[in-house]
Amino acid sequence: MNRNTCTGVVSLVLLFSAFSFFSACNNEDKKDGGSAPAKSDSTAQMLERGKYLAHHVSLCMDCHGQRDFSQFSGPMKEGTEGIGGDVFDMHVGVPGVVYAKNITPDTVNGIGKWTDEEIIRAITRGISRNGDTLFPLMPYPHYNGMSKEDILSIVAYIRTLKPSSNKVPDRKLMMPASMAYPPLRSPSLDSNQKPDVSDMVKYGAYMWNAAACMDCHTPMENGQFILTKLMAGGRTFDLGTFVVTSANITMDTATGIGKWTEQMFLDKFKNYRDKAAYASNPGKNNSIMPWSMYANMTDFDIKAIYRFLQTLPAINNKIEKYPATK
Fold first, then answer.
1. If you average pLDDT over residues 218-223, what whole number do you get?
2. Cβ(2)–Cβ(59) under 8 Å?
3. Any bridge partners for residue 224, and if so which?
């Protein structure tokens, strides 16, 4: 679960429109990129893929680990992988308080007793082991469109985490989570296909969805995504110590990234592969964007996302990165 996806009450109609918008870039491609692992694949390769997705694309560890916002962009505290406890409340659009769960294999306070099927259902359909609906700040509507191979790789990796006894408080919502349950695009993981890398735009759309980029970079109003401003920025996040607004990353040349080359886009991420780029306390000029996690996406995956962003409408939307606060 990605802090970048801390959304308010999701509009069912608007979310459905958003998923329809890019579904052609994902599920309709039936190439073998999302098929079952080849016989030559090893367990180690599957775990490596799962770790890559959990740490650097879908960012499970962003929310289910603990971040240190005394440093720029809040890098994850070493040793907190999967222990949960991160808090999401009305400052980030939640009608109440939700806590990221402990997803380590601990059998008392984690998910050690969950079956693979139960974990998959939570990740891709937002239904917990006991049948509760997960609040959709957990980006299961996006994970619902990922390939079965990728989801199984994430589950396999989560199984390897060090068990933690960290007990996470129960959520306290002011409404039933089922009221915010969004429509899901895919009825079954078996129907999902990961586009072949030879089609860089379709593959980029797949990775963009897996990273849930739209959830932070699309503004909201009254708990609803404003899809006419898809990826145009404007989501404001108040973490108490700082308030920051997400950037416009459409190809608008005046207010977005329309003047950026592919290499400039890539370099923005690569900069944070060096710990020195974020190992400082910026005070109120901080960012919720988990640069230190996304930075270690492969160059190819970052470039593919850029190629996909080039296909979206360029939207003029000037952003005040650090809005004035009282």
1. 85
2. yes
3. 221
- In the DSSP assignment, the letter for residue 97 is E
The Cα 100–Cα 315 span in angstroms is 33
With beta carbons less than 8 A apart as the criterion, state whether 235 and 296 touch.
no
Tokens of 208: 């963009």
| 8 Å CB contact between 112 and 101 | no
107: left (phi over 0), alpha (psi -120 to 50) or beta: alpha
Contact 90, 240 (CB under 8 A): no
Lowest mean pLDDT among 158-162, 207-211, 237-241, 290-294: 237-241
Classify burial at 303, counting beta carbons within 10 Å of its beta carbon; exposed 0-12, middle 13-18, buried 19 or more: middle
Question: Distance between CA 8 and CA 95 in Å, rounded?
Answer: 7
Query: Using an 8 Å Cβ cutoff, are 196 and 29 in contact?
Result: yes
pLDDT digits (tens, 9 = 90+) for 2-39: 444 433 333 333 343 344 444 444 444 434 444 444 54
The reported pTM is: 0.87
Q: What are the distances in angstroms from CA 127 to CA 123, 131, 181, 279, 286?
A: 8, 6, 10, 37, 34
pLDDT tens-digit map of 111-126: 999 999 999 999 999 9
Report which of 232, 49, 226, 45 is spatially closest to residue 146, judged by C-alpha positions. 49
